[in-house]
Specification:
This protein is α+β, with helices and mostly antiparallel strands. It has 2 domains: 60 residues, Methylated DNA-protein cysteine methyltransferase domain (Double Stranded RNA Binding Domain, 2-Layer Sandwich), CATH 3.30.160.70; 83 residues, Arc Repressor Mutant, subunit A (Orthogonal Bundle), CATH 1.10.10.10. Helices cover 33% and strands 12% of the residues. The strands form 2 sheets. Strands 1-2-3 form a 3-stranded antiparallel beta sheet, with helices on one face. A two-stranded parallel sheet has the order 4-5. A hairpin with a 6-residue loop joins β1 and β2. The radius of gyration is 16 Å and the shape is globular. It starts with a strand and ends with a helix.
Amino acid sequence: MEYYCRIPSPLGALLLASDGEALTGLWFTDQKNAPQPEDQTLVEPDALPAFSHTNEWLTLYWKGEIPNFLPPLKFHGTAFQQSVWNLLGSIPYGETTTYGEIARTLKNASNGKTASARAVGGAVGRNPISIIVPCHRVLGANGRMTGYAGGIERKEALLKLEKH
């Protein structure tokens, strides 16, 4: 069963999802691809440890601090998507990369199998755990501010918060 809770944030309400053990989703409630759960699946933010840990992580993050822990995370996606999402998690706080750089990293890690920047962009856009898995740190070629399911203004705000 999937559980959901809503919590406030400085950039708008967030929706969290959990399978009861790990965080499986984190979206702005109005963002593209955010689920619209039934009211009966909504629980209080402290009802599950995954939600409590996520809320604690986010509280530190919104203060401009770098949390020294991660809530338990579980991804549901293709092998390619998961490889991209894992790379997103390695982008240091306050730093950025590009879709092309991620594609090159994947190519090097897979013995030369080509991954296009466009395919990487598709996987980044389907990242189910935003903010914690920092898809907002991925820019277009030449550092252009491009796509973010939560909206470009939020992407800019998150990068500003990280003092980029």
